[in-house]
């Protein structure tokens, strides 16, 4: 336990989360008003309203009205003890987790199980035509969790370590395990897919947003595809927060609205003119402009919590040949991308492991020469490797890319131009995001696939990208040694041995080169000063912002004065 705590503290201390403007000074909370937000996913509609669909973005869209067993403890972030920034897409060390719908939990050894004590006094929202308000109990936990496991869209192996769930009494739910899983909290307690939905919503039709309901601080009351998602205050919400030592009932604002604005210049204009209050993900390109045009904005800076790369399908020619994969990496001038495309606002190596994972992340200079070489620019050697692999005149292939990000398309075009210089033609196929994602999850994607994929956490980033038959494995990586080593590490309770194994796995996939690795940029979050009790946090679970928004309030007098 002591060793585990030490590693987690090192991870926290290493976070390069940097505030240009520090948090708001504590003030007396105000109730009322509307908070208008362009979130980290400004171009994407809700992809699903039902956790059963196992859609990665579901958690982001339902987090204001659906809750989890566990949640990140924001009081240990910038607003409190400042031990953790709450920016990572899906990595929260255990000491920064607290109960949400579960008041407490413990691991039981005989039989192996996790026992959750359910919070009393929590009620489901009343939704006309769907359900009456009623108390939340252990029955609801077991129903939701067993339903999640029964979905045909379940990610392979994700919940396979669970034997079954059981109701012990009204306020006790027990998860019996087949084997220990070091990543269990992320898998089913605060992760991507485990928001708890009521049986009544399922019976009414869970794919319709009008039937969506939960136990959270807001209720979804309007959805206009391609425009906005409106969440209205749940006046009977159970949650509270502490500000300056005094307890207040949540939420503060009457409404929270997510705006979907696909055009980047339109988004920025909306921020500058205060038509929106918060914009969570602004490109480095606009920092100087915003400083000049809207100098009163508050801002925080963070390194992208996802990796950018072009996956190469190893089950298709010519990408089954590692010489071809290495050649394409050597063909790309990554330092030039950092210098000219990102104007220096990027890091060279930030995936699979994030630079912020102290004790696990290894800087490029500490890797073997064979890995260092992959991040150098050597078109002549690239041509030589292609010739050795039987492609002296190059080849042609198709690479899919998401049309939801112009910056992503521009980067893909730049990479394609580098390939052309060594005789390889890459025809980029832009797709609307839904079709782009579906092509990969159904394994119908093209030989090349440009992806921007979250780090999640050390076990998860290796699993989803490289474990055989995983949903998020665009290179179709299939390696017996990798599979066996990863599974052994997951079941290993010895932290030192676990860490050694994870580092070996990370180095192994870098060496195998299933991706053309690309740099990670800095990102900026902006908000107007009338938004109070906000400190630049982005996620409090797996891509989950809801509890952060519920704690914000609007200083109406300041807003009126500044506008």
In short:
The chain has about 575 residues and is an alpha+beta fold. The model is unreliable at about 1-25 (pLDDT under 50).
Question: Could you give the topology of this structure?
Answer:
Layout: H1 2-13, E1 18-19, E2 34-38, H2 58-62, E3 70-72, E4 97-99, E5 102-109, E6 112-118, H3 138-150, E7 162-169, E8 172-177, H4 184-188, H5 199-204, E9 218-224, E10 228-233, E11 240-243, E12 246-249, E13 255-259, H6 264-272, E14 278-283, H7 287-293, E15 298-303, E16 306-312, H8 322-331, H9 334-341, E17 346-347, H10 369-372, H11 379-388, E18 396-402, H12 406-420, E19 425-431, H13 433-441, E20 448-454, H14 458-466, H15 480-491, H16 495-512, E21 515-518, E22 520-527, E23 531-532, H17 546-550, E24 553-554, H18 556-562
Parallel strand pairs: 2-13, 2-14, 18-19, 18-20
Antiparallel strand pairs: 1-15, 3-4, 5-6, 6-8, 7-8, 9-10, 10-13, 11-12, 14-22, 15-22, 16-20, 16-21, 17-22, 23-24
Helix pairs in contact: 8-11, 14-15, 14-16, 15-16
CATH class of the largest domain: Alpha Beta
Strand count: 24
Q: Report Rg.
A: 24 Å
What structural class do helix, strand and pairing data support?
Answer: alpha+beta
Question: What characterizes the major β-sheet?
Answer: 9 strands, mixed
Kindly state the percentage of residues in helix.
25-40%
Counting DSSP H or I runs of 4 or more residues, the number of helices is: 18
State the distance separating the first and last CA atoms: 52 Å
Task: Please tell me the total number of domains.
Answer: 2
Strand content: 15-25%
């Amino acid at each position: 336990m002591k060793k585990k705590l030490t590693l987690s503290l090192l991870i926290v201390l290493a976070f390069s989360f940097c505030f240009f403007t520090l948090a708001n000074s504590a003030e007396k909370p105000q109730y009322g008003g509307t908070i208008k937000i362009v979130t980290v996913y400004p171009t994407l509609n809700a992809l699903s309203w039902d956790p059963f669909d196992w859609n990665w973005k579901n958690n982001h869209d339902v987090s204001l009205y659906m809750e989890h067993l566990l949640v990140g403890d924001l009081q240990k972030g910038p607003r409190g003890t400042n031990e953790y920034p709450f920016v990572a897409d899906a990595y929260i060390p255990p000491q920064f987790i607290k109960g949400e719908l579960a008041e407490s939990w413990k691991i039981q050894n005989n039989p192996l199980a996790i026992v959750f004590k359910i919070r009393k006094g929590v009620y489901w929202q009343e939704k006309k035509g769907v359900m009456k308000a009623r108390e939340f109990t252990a029955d609801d936990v077991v129903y939701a969790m067993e339903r999640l496991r029964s979905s045909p869209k379940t990610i392979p192996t994700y919940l396979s370590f669970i034997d079954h769930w059981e109701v012990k009494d009204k306020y006790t739910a027990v998860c019996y395990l087949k084997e220990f899983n070091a990543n269990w909290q992320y898998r089913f307690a605060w992760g991507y897919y485990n928001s708890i939905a009521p049986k009544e919503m399922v019976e009414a039709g869970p794919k319709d947003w009008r039937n969506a309901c939960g136990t959270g601080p807001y209720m979804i009351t309007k959805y206009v595809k391609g425009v906005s998602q409106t969440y209205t205050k749940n006046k009977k919400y159970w949650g509270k927060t502490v500000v300056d030592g005094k307890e207040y009932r949540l939420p503060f604002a009457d409404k929270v609205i997510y705006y979907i604005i696909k055009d980047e210049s339109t988004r920025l204009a909306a921020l500058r003119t205060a038509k929106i209050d918060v914009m969570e993900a602004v490109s480095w390109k606009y920092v100087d402009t915003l400083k000049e045009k809207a100098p009163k904005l508050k801002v925080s800076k963070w390194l992208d919590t996802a990796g950018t790369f072009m996956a190469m399908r190893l089950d298709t020619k010519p990408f089954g040949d590692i010489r071809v994969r290495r050649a394409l990496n050597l063909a790309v001038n990554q330092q030039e991308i950092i210098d000219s495309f990102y104007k220096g606002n990027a890091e060279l190596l930030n995936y699979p492991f994030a630079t912020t994972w102290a004790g696990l992340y290894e800087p490029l200079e500490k890797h073997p020469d064979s890995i260092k070489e992959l991040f150098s620019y050597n078109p002549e050697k690239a041509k030589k490797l292609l010739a050795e692999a039987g492609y002296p005149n190059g080849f042609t292939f198709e690479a899919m890319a998401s049309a939801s990000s112009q910056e992503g398309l521009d980067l893909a075009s730049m990479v394609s131009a580098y390939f052309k210089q060594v005789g390889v033609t890459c025809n980029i196929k832009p797709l609307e995001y839904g079709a782009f994602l579906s092509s990969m999850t159904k394994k119908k994607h093209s030989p090349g696939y440009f992806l921007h994929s979250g780090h999640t956490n050390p076990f998860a980033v290796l699993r989803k990208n490289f474990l055989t038959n995983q949903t998020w494995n665009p290179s179709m990586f299939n390696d017996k040694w990798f599979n066996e080593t990863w599974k052994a590490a997951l079941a290993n309770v010895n932290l030192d041995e676990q860490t050694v194994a994870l580092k070996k796995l990370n180095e192994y996939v870098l060496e195998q080169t299933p991706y053309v690795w690309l740099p990670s940029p800095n990102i900026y979050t902006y908000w107007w000063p009338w938004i109070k009790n906000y400190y630049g946090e982005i996620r409090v679970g797996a891509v989950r912002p809801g509890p952060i928004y519920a704690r914000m309030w609007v200083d109406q007098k300041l807003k009126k004065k500044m506008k």
